[in-house]
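#struct-pred
JK: can someone run the complex with 6-O-phosphono-beta-D-tagatofuranose? inputs below
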Amino acid sequence: MTNEYIENLNRRYGIKDKLSFHLGEGDMPVALIDNGLCEAEISLYGGHVLSFIPNGEEDLLWVSSKSIYSEGTPIRGGIPVCWPWFNAHPTDSDVYSHGFARRNTWEVMDSATEEDGSTVILLALNGDKNTRKGWPHSYHAELTITAGEELKVELTTENKGDEPIVISNALHTYFSVADATKIIISGLDGCEYGDDVDSGKMKVQSGDITIAGEVDRNYRNTEDECIITDPLKDRKIRVRKEGSSTTVVWNPWVEKAKGLKDFGDEEYMNMVCIEAVNAFDDCRKIEPGENHTMGQIISIA
Ligand code: TA6
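RT: done, structure tokens with the ligand placed:
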């Protein structure tokens, strides 16, 4: 991206003393928010929130020190936008898992300051039915990102075509923790889940979630909030969601982390993913001209 592109973004969407645009890692365009309530960084590549730091707190989000910042490769950490399919493509094995939204640059459409002092930025990703392998549909996706005392990310899919579409998607959020083996995740007690570490077997969560190995679980029929209790950081993070009945919890643990070139071998100890998801039995059918929004809200509890 050129400096002229950045200057144009600042002229059109910058907000004095609150929102500005720059070239970040890998010379990729980023929006920087510093509005007195929080600091946040959003990569326009991927529509990807990289950090969210409420006043007086450390970053709630985690990004790998090994992340690759290069067009076509998803950033490792923050809030990857997995869209318009979650995990493998339902029928085409020749396309990337987790869709194409996190591998493309989103367009800035608007910005504003809310009454409570939060900063809002609106991003969009558009294409026609010939744009994307695996997605022969006209589409319009929007991300509304509101950063203040809390962070709200809303992912909206509009069906611009004349046939119904079925999407699966996720806000695949990586949270920063001091020691993954010491945290407790509450809010999913009694919830049925598919255990992808045990051939997808369906199980029932008993009590709080703790981490002592690889965790890759898709919790079904839950709209409940989760709380991450992190004793060593002496903080609790509240994770709420809207428009989603599936929550995924993931930690790659030792072997999976070693197998990922954009993930430090020991970094699994400092992160956990809690994801707002539409997938499995919670995929969403969108009629022509209709839309669906899934949101995640993150705050200090
Ligand atoms: O959300 C959990 C998951 O589907 C895991 O199975 C793992 O693949 C993770 O996403 C990361 O996927 P990525 O394509 O970002 O490496």
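RT: quick notes.
The pocket of 6-O-phosphono-beta-D-tagatofuranose is lined by residues 74, 87, 97-98, 172, 196, 216, 248, 250, 273, 275 (CB under 6 Å).
Residues 214 and 253 are 5 Å apart (CA to CA).
JK: thanks, will look after standup
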